[in-house]
Design brief:
Layout: H1 4-14, E1 23-24, H2 27-33, E2 36-41, H3 51-64, E3 71-74, H4 78-90, E4 94-99, H5 104-112, E5 116-120, H6 124-138, E6 141-142, H7 149-166, E7 173-177, H8 182-194, E8 199-205, H9 211-217, H10 239-248, E9 251-255, H11 257-271, H12 277-288, E10 297-302
Parallel strand pairs: 2-10, 3-4, 3-6, 4-5, 7-8, 7-10, 8-9
Antiparallel strand pairs: 1-2
Helix pairs in contact: 1-3, 1-7, 3-4, 3-7, 4-5, 7-8, 8-10, 11-12
Length: about 325
């Protein structure tokens, strides 16, 4: 089980390799939502996303424990870059299985960090089969995108910084997107330890709505269909992440792609920063369910800014 000491050790381990990202506010968005919003800008993180935290913690642990001489993973993009970046930091080979439909900007970035990209069909089964083949052929250690204690502990450090820096008075709520659940699990754990009166809410696209069903049923469910612009949130929860989420998360709320695109554009226009569609799901939730957030102090983790600028949705 992950403890507060686990999270603090992860933070100490990765601190030399990451940015302590800023927290921004915006009066226009506060006025529009009726909430006091504090945006933790992981779009300014190394590799452009929070995933650097979990990837680094896991890869550094592979080195520290001498678990293997190479690492492998599957990812649509941001975790792929995180593992590639972390592997370069410690001099390990990295093999990354990516869906052929992943944004080209993310594939190029992974190769830029020196990792080998192996493309596959855009299904969970194809990703898992592809990475297993690599592991069998190379002996690489799997760094799972979210079903991994080291990864979850690393992701928890974003909320740790947010709460430590801006958590007095305590946040009423903290929001993160949810795909496979690594960030949501880590955020919920950090919040449970450091700010127990704060509620954590997961934010999910309607076009990949497995987490909300799993949250309700208590077992890992598949989304009824996968059709969303939020390419980073298509993964399904694991038993591990569902367990943490069911224990420490208050709710999971869903939004349609039209709301995600509108929220993304609003951040670009009003905050003058670049975020990707998966990142915009949190603000989209605040805008769609205003009664749940009006008058509240709300932490919002902006997860990443790796956008294919040739394929903007607006």
């Amino acid at each position: 089980m992950i403890t507060l000491d686990t999270i603090r050790a992860a933070h100490d381990r990765i601190r030399p390799h990451i940015h302590h990202t800023p927290v921004l506010t915006n009066q226009t968005l506060n006025d529009r939502t009726g909430a006091s919003l504090f945006f933790k800008c992981e779009n300014f993180q190394k590799i452009g996303a929070f995933k650097a935290r979990g990837g680094l913690n896991a890869v550094l642990q592979v080195v520290d424990t001498k678990a293997g001489k190479a690492v492998a993973t599957h990812s649509s993009g941001n975790h792929a870059q995180a593992v590639a970046y972390a592997a370069r930091q410690v001099g390990l080979p990295a093999y990354i299985v990516m869906p052929r439909t992943a944004p080209q900007v993310k594939k190029d970035a992974v190769r830029g960090y020196g990792a080998e990209v192996i493309e596959c069909e855009p299904t969970q089964a194809a990703r898992e089969a592809g990475v297993q083949t690599i592991i069998d052929e190379t002996g690489a250690v799997l760094v799972h995108p979210y079903d991994d204690e080291w990864v979850i502990a690393g992701q928890a450090t974003a909320a740790t910084e947010l709460i430590t820096d801006f958590g007095q008075p305590p946040f009423d709520l903290i929001l993160t997107p949810v795909g496979g659940g690594g960030l949501l699990s880590g955020t919920a754990l950090a919040t449970h330890f450091l700010s127990p009166t704060t509620r954590v809410i997961g934010c999910e696209p309607e076009g990949a709505a497995d987490a909300v069903l799993s949250f309700q049923s208590g077992q890992v469910e598949s989304a009824p269909y996968i059709d969303t612009i939020a390419d980073g949130l298509m993964a399904r929860l694991s038993d591990r992440t569902l367990g943490y989420i069911r224990q420490h998360v208050s709710a999971i709320l869903t939004v349609p792609d039209a709301d995600i695109i509108a929220a993304m554009r609003l951040v670009w226009e009003r905050m003058k920063i670049i975020i990707e569609p998966s990142c915009a799901v949190t603000l989209a939730v605040v805008l769609r369910y205003p009664d749940q957030f009006a008058g509240k102090k709300v932490g919002v983790i902006l997860t990443g800014g790796n956008v294919d600028l040739g394929k903007l949705p607006f």
